[in-house]
Amino acid sequence: VAEEAIELGEWSVDVDDMVAFGREWDQLEFHVDPVRAASGPYGGLIASGRQSFLIWMRLYVDAVLPGADGPVSPQLAEVRWLLPVRPGDRLRAAFRPLEAAEPGRGGAVPFQGELLNQKDELVMTLDGRGVPPG
Amino acid sequence: MTLYFEDFPAGEELEIGERTFTRDELARFARDWDPQPHLLDGERASDWQVFCTWGLLYVAAVHLKAASQGGAGVSDFRFPKPVRAGDRLRGRVRVLEARASSTKPERGTLVVEGVFVDGADELVFAHRSVVFFGRRPGHVR
Predict the structure, then answer these.
(1) Distance CA B3, CA B73 (A)
(2) Residue A27, burial from CB neighbour count under 10 angstroms (0-12, 13-18, 19+)
(3) Is the minimum CB–CB distance between B74 and chain A shorter than 8 Å?
(4) Which value does ipTM take for this structure?
(5) Fewer CB within 10 Å of terminal CB in chain A, N or C?
(6) 3-state class (DSSP) for residue A133
(7) Mind listing the pLDDT tens digit for each residue in B95-135?
(8) Nearest chain B Cα distance for residue A90, angstroms
């Protein structure tokens, strides 16, 4: 049985954030050029999947660090991008343990990481083992 | 000339470029995206900077010359050896599988393995990535 999801925090992305990230990390036209993106495969500008990934990771690290006594990088098996992230989307990250943690602090558990938009649609999931925050 | 799905058959292997991180670059990435205490001095790279840099090189070397439609996900991460400031990384990509889509005839899906090796030719990063490319115009199914 899946445990309750632990909320990690929120992050909004606008056109400028997406274009700045895309210019540095992922120069496909649908990440960096709003005009050309409009006639591209996604019908407009969308965030690089790696930007969505790093937003989840930053929110996770901020949430887990205060109680951690060592490195906290999760071991990831899979990352899936399910829906495009578009300018103005308000993203919300969560960590859903798939098993209860063993007694004692710092134990990694299998989890699903979730990134949702303001319509509560899942835009990205991560699967792996990591330390639950809090 | 634009490259299409048909230009990347299974078994194809390509070099996608090199990258050497400075301490400043590693420290800045850690501050921005992975602020764990042991990464903030820029001595060691965040795993996620290594992953994102591989993607940057793959996009620049291949996707920008092709009818790229982005990707669906990544899996099977391995980080067998830490990456440090000054290490010279060389990126490679190999096509494991090329599938035409039955529901979206205008594009095809590749499963690729992406790796970095260091100056000693030792593996420092490997993963799989699922990416989409447009089909060559007028392709016969």
Answers:
(1) 21
(2) middle
(3) yes
(4) 0.95
(5) N
(6) coil
(7) 999 999 888 889 999 999 999 999 999 999 999 999 999 99
(8) 18
